[in-house]
Amino acid sequence: MNTRILLLIPCILLRSLVIGQASIHSLIPAPQQVIIGEGIFTIAADTRTTVASPDLEEEGTYLRDQLKELLHLELMLLPSPMAAAGGIHLAVLPNDTVAAEGYTLTISTDRITIAGDDEAGVFRGITTLLNMMRAGEVSSATLGCRTIHDAPRFSWRGMHLDVCRHFFPIEFVKKYIDLLARYKMNRFHWHLTDDQGWRIEIKKYPKLTEVGAWRSGSQYGPYSQRTYDSTRYGGFYTQEQIREVVAYAQARHVTVVPEIEMPGHALAALAAYPELSCTGGPFEVAKGWGVFEDVFCPKEETFTFLENVLSEVIDLFPSAYIHIGGDECPKERWKQCSHCQQLMKQKGLKDEHELQSFFIQRIERYVNSKGRKIIGWDEILEGGLAPNAAVMSWRGTEGGIAAAQQSHPVVMSPGTHCYFDHYQGEPVNEPLAIGGYTTVQKTYAFEPVPSALSAKEAAFILGAQGNVWTEYILSPEHVEYMAVPRMLALAEVLWSPRSARNEADFVRRLRSEFPTLSALNVNYSTSLFDVGFSLKSSKKRGQVNVDLSATPGLGEIRYTLDGTEPTHESLPFTSTIEQRSSGTIRAALFNGMSKPGHSTSRTFKFDLGTGRAITTTPAPHERYNNGGAFTLVDGIVAGDKRVNHEWLGWRDEQVSISLDLGAAQWVSRISLGALAERHGWIHPPENVSISVSETGTDFIDLGSASRTELPFGHMLYSVSTPMTARYIKVLVKGIGVIPSGDPGAGDRPWMFLDELHVE
User: Fold this and answer.
1) Are residues 683 and 718 in the same domain?
2) Catalytic residue among 150, 162, 194, 457
3) What percent of the residues of the chain are helix, what percent strand, and what percent coil, each to the nearest 5?
4) CATH number for position 36
5) Domain-terminating residue out of 150, 179, 199
6) Residue 132: helix, strand or coil by DSSP?
7) Do 207 and 230 have their domain in common?
């Protein structure tokens, strides 16, 4: 043999060994326990895969097929009750040996054994083995000896995909499921019906796909601009394709949970069958996003229709739970409908919320009669929760807490941490999104079990789920960009022990995973490298304290104070920046001379009120309270992309704001910013009144502010005040309830407020 080749072989083996040993420290989600042994095992052409029982044949086939793809080896698959030397053995452990979906993976010098609680546990162990073998763009057949004991923290580890706003082909749906399986997630929530499209074939009602699956155009651009194209758009999955996806997911121990929306988000169905509405139509499949007035009417023909639909859905999906939506159902049509009002009298229902509860309970009885259970968004709590329903809590955690306290199963999915259609990095660097601001780090910090629950109540928390709504997500690549890597952060939250959670270590492992994701052709986001800004009040009034942050180990923060692009020679961030005047701070991470991500910035516009003492009564809602009241005087004016750190949100009818300028000053004008996105239930104030005082006791009423409409739905409420003042009071009155004709009519609106300007 050539001497050069002889010298090369140990190098190859050493490289493989390093890959095998390092990969255990790069696993996502992190295993419960790893015991490192001595020696190596190499998978070779003569390695046999054996299964202890016929029930594991599907798992064995999956492993064999994956090894063929990774290593280009055609391994034999054989039945055998015992592990054989030189092979990979799959077995199910005796009952109660490990937790559900748990497994033990043992790699010794002469064999690999994967033993699970059940077939799902064996599959999770297979996933760990395969993930260790793939390191970056290289797949290694050589693995260091070790024993892994592992099991999930939560039973529901989910990801959602909305295919109604934008439609995605079967091939991508399978790729999405593969990603879930890779990171040990086990629920795929498939959002199949909505106002903008009906995506599942129902044999009994062909017009659902003939009519309901297609719209005459789509909304595009910033939501507030309400612009539409005229391109026919749509698509649907045949029942054969549905079965194909369900079988594909089952082979990976992922349960597909279908969502059939009711009683709201029903325009696509009503366009096909208008007689199921309160008015009779006609309707068209919605071109725009948001919430629409026309919903299913709770009459017998509607329930017959929905039961027939659900009968076909239940035949297609073996999931224990069927998601029935239940969210964002306006009650205006019901209020005007003689049938609905008569039904309420007949059933003794006091309001339309109880009518919705009646609707949901009627559907639940049917689903229960088929041996299944319903799950719905947290609005199904309103008017009374159906007896056997599970709740998916999305409007914060309150709904989940209430349901758990009533002994109902809960899946936590609050928009604050689990909505992956939100911005994940500096908006100027990101594709247009619906709003919000949820970083990888914020998702990783999520705790699914609220502290308000007792240990007994906490047992009703099944787990959590990440949601990908696709109003602004048009392609498979864009879905991947929004979901990954936030999905990986959530996967670890749901699988690994809470005590083991370590953000810096997770980020280290995530960086190691990026080359693997590239090899898997996943279009992941690198916004992880964005520098975070934290704006806080200072004891030195009239100043904004600015802290810059990045996860340790990613690099060094460099910044400029004049808005220019930072370089590796710019100012290093070592302590709080004291911003006292208008200007732009721009920052970026650097590894030596290399910049792994984008630069981020904040532009400050100072006036007399910036950085001054401010309070609001009441406090903003927890979902929209980034930075607290200080956000109104932090010098940052909201931009065209709505993100949470620029707006405060209330659902209260009145908000009082008090500002202390620190000393009496000449004031010429006072203004308050607000937002109008009526289709998102965000309404501008009905009235803003302003008063001022030099002493803090005798206030001069300046009357109601005039309103100026600005681009992107922004509003500015202003009064002229040519006088001396120190104290300013602003009383903001909302519209109370959403008016007839607007989405969500009769419900409480959101009120979003921005910077309070004092000139």
Assistant:
1) yes
2) 194
3) 30, 30, 40
4) 3.30.379.10
5) 150
6) helix
7) yes
Report how far Cα 115 is from the mean position of its chain's Cα atoms: 33
Look up residue 676 and give its DSSP letter: -
Alpha-carbon dihedral of residues 92, 93, 99, 102, nearest 10 degrees?
A: -50
Q: What is the pLDDT of residue 23?
A: 59
608 within a domain of the structure (yes/no): no
Helix (H, G, I), strand (E, B), or coil: what is residue 358? helix
Domain boundary among 581, 603, 625: 603
Q: Given pLDDT bands bounded at 50, 70 and 90, which one contains residue 1?
A: very low
The alpha-carbon radius of gyration of the chain (Å, integer) is: 29
Q: Are residues 542 and 653 in the same domain?
A: no
Domain count, the chain: 4
Reported as a single tens digit per residue, the pLDDT across 544-554 is: 999 999 888 88
Q: Would you list the DSSP string of 606-629?
A: --TTTT-EEEEESPPPGGG-TTGG
Of 527, 490, 596, 496, give the one whose Cα is nearest residue 179: 490
Whether residues 197 and 85 share a domain: the answer is: no
Q: Look up 194 and say whether it is catalytic.
A: yes
Residue with tokens 């023909």: 301
> Which position has the token pair 């090369």?
8
Q: In CATH, what number is assigned to the domain containing residue 162?
A: 3.20.20.80
* Catalytic residue selected from 265, 353, 598, 645: 265
By residue range, what is the domain housing residue 368?
156-522
Choosing from 294, 328, 332, 382, the catalytic residue is: 328
Q: pLDDT confidence of 24, banded at 50, 70, 90?
A: low
Contact 610, 659 (CB under 8 A): no
How far apart are the C-alpha atoms of 104 and 113, rounded to whole Å?
8
pLDDT tens readout for residues 360-398:
999 999 999 999 999 999 999 999 999 999 999 999 999
757 catalytic per annotation: no
Q: Give pLDDT, residue 371.
A: 98
Q: Are residues 417 and 507 in the same domain?
A: yes
**pTM score:** 0.88
Mean pLDDT for the chain overall: 93
- If asked whether residues 163 and 240 sit together in one domain, one would say yes
Q: How far is CA 616 from CA 354, 645, 654, 756, in A?
A: 34, 17, 10, 12
Active-site residue flag, 166: no
